[in-house]
Fold:
Amino acid sequence: MTTPENELSNSIANVGLPAGKIPQLRMMPAPSDANVYGDVFGGWIMSQVDIAGSLPATRRANGRVATIAVNSFLFKHPVFVGDLLSFYADIVKVGNTSITVYVEVYAERNRLQADTVKVTEATLTYVATGSDRKPRQLPPLESLLAGQGA
Ligand SMILES: CC(C)(COP(=O)(O)OP(=O)(O)OC[C@H]1O[C@@H](n2cnc3c(N)ncnc32)[C@H](O)[C@@H]1OP(=O)(O)O)[C@@H](O)C(=O)NCCC(=O)NCCS
Structure:
């Protein structure tokens, strides 16, 4: 709801984040996700990136997917306990059974100062699978859009 009470929070919340895009996930790492220095484990971030990337892939596959490859992964800046992380995921390539997704992660470090840093980017490939866990042909995009009433 847009009220004067919410206006400040809403305006700060979007500073430094990609305009016009909706994050697939927002997470805040806890102390148990970090090493003794307070830096968040890379493996924890990779796990969240895999989940975020799987969301558009699952929608495009209209069903289950499995991660077949992490093509690239860049930890450009550290992530700290208490950062508010936003995970954006875009499909960049579609094959017969595979979907490749580009994931970007932004950290809001000091939310009162709107201090936002792009910390991670990665490209992952998912394969649509059937109940037999074998690769499955992707449905035509048109059939999915028609199902959405588009
Ligand atoms: C995913 C899985 C079912 C695919 O079966 P497969 O027989 O290895 O797959 P295929 O060789 O037929 O390739 C399937 C697709 O993946 C693509 N692919 C294969 N190797 C790839 C690689 N290294 N990088 C990117 N894409 C790759 C192929 O090009 C093909 O895409 P296309 O159909 O769009 O052309 C199987 O590899 C698997 O079960 N892997 C384990 C998945 C897993 O446990 N992930 C972690 C937890 S989700």
